[in-house]
Amino acid sequence: MPGGYKNINGHDGNTFASNNQPKNRKVSSKPLKELLLKELSKKEEIIVSGFDVVTGKFHKIRVSMPTKRMIIAALCRKAARGDNVAIGIVFDRIDGKVSQHTDFGQDDITITINGKPPNGQY
Q: Which pTM value belongs to this model?
């Protein structure tokens, strides 16, 4: 019996080589970004339901909008409910990511070699 615990050699199974590859490998002809943009530009229809705060009546409204807008609306709803990740995404998109700038002044770094500054400098 080939293979097994402490009994694996180079002759077990198929070799990994260019001439030993699967025949009908499915390779996408379109980049993922293209496909995503196409899907996001489609219009979707959703039903929004809720209570009218003035009358107290329950309403259902059918809304048709682009998928991209629906995703943005869902993200904003999550942020409004206090989801920290959604809040971070919204603010990163509005204000840009916060950069962390580290400034080392010339006097902050001391280099010593064998306990002495290089070239006798202090």
A: 0.43
